[in-house]
Amino acid sequence: MLAALRAPENAHLLEYVTQDPFGAHVFPGDTPDYSPAEFLADLDVQLRDTAPIHLWSYIPTCAYRCRFCQYPVVLVKGDPGKLTQWADWNMREALLWLENVPSLSSAPIGEFNVFGGTPSLLPAADIARLLEFYRSHFNFGPETTVRFEGDPSTFTVEKLELLASLGCTKLSCGVQSFDDPVLKLCGREHTSQMCVDFIRAAQRVGFERISIDLMYGLLDQTVDSVRRDLDVVLDTGVNSVVCTKLHLKSYAETRTGVAGEKPAAWQVDSYRSRLERDGHFWPTLDEQYEMRAVLTEGLRAAGYVEHPTMYFAANGIGPETWKSIMVDQDRQEAEVAIGLGGSSSCRRSEAITDVNWQTYAASVEAGRVPLGSATAFSPSGQETRAVKMALTSLQPLQDSLHRSRFGRSLFDEPWAGRFRSLQDRGFAVLSDDAVTLTPAGETLVEAIINTEF
Length: 453
Fold this sequence. Notes:
This protein is α/β, with parallel strands linked by helices. It contains 19 helices and 17 strands. The longest helix is centred in the N-terminal third of the chain and has 21 residues, at 80-100. The model has no long low-confidence stretch (mean pLDDT 95). Residues 48-292 form the Radical SAM core domain. This is Heme chaperone HemW.
């Protein structure tokens, strides 16, 4: 893999990965100066006749801020009133979306996610009324699944039992690592044993999908540490794992994710320098790719299926519903994100909710959908976005599906030359009706879609 990156013809891929990018599943528009009102109108048109979509509620509350985090979060430790306030604002914002996008109330919801932040900090009464609000105002059906996110310290047995009783069947948990010294350097306030205890408790309660997040490339993290993380995953039998590379370059600069108002602690040069002077270290690029290989190869060997990239599910339970709704070539439906810093999209445009909590709150209080920015996709941008999303699914790109949607073949220009080049460099295989990434292409798919398309 590193040999491929260092080949002269792949210099642009090496430049991409060494610049610390992140975000294979973020697809910004190519036409700026689009208004939020235009995005809401585009979304309404698409939702008039839609397959199930992904709806998520972003609750930005956290007890503390991790040293790698650059998302918009609000610290609420010791202040339960703030938690209730953010649940209130989220529901009031949702009503504004329903008012401004009339088709949203009838759009079938494939998966509803309560993400954060740490929404599991919410008191039981606020969790119950939040879930009841969304069920009563949106088109949940028998097939709708509900997912809730939290961290190991807040997913108590009592909270797990509450969530199960309220119809949640899926959990997401930010474990990040099972190495206690690494967790401490991240600023995490939980231990590796608490992570294992959470998994065991969630399994006993009977959740259908228990997903944990692991990060690689963390401060003082070694390849052996990541191997131990894999061992714990396999020992616990947790059935879903999301693997993420540490990202230090600003999301705002790369447009690869929603950025907060201030940098993560680890993005501050003086802080990073002090850590290095104290003897701490950041894994090299070679080590990061070895960590990725340890996780990818180990999980696949244990029967996990990767779909989309870096999302692993135990064989038999299928891909993450909310991600497949967004990226699979035969779906690619809308996503509606309600809450501070949410990222929403439809086929014609995309928008990001305000990341400043004060202006966000002022907009909600004034009765305005608090969108901070919007961009559109040109006709060629829509086609490019569809190809990029499909590639991140790691499933073969079907020419027949592309022709039915865009009226031209993947084996005509402007695509033919790009795919032939990927094949010549060992990143893809072309057949009569499909483009399939090779293992090298799958590993480098983030760099490929962001530099070659």
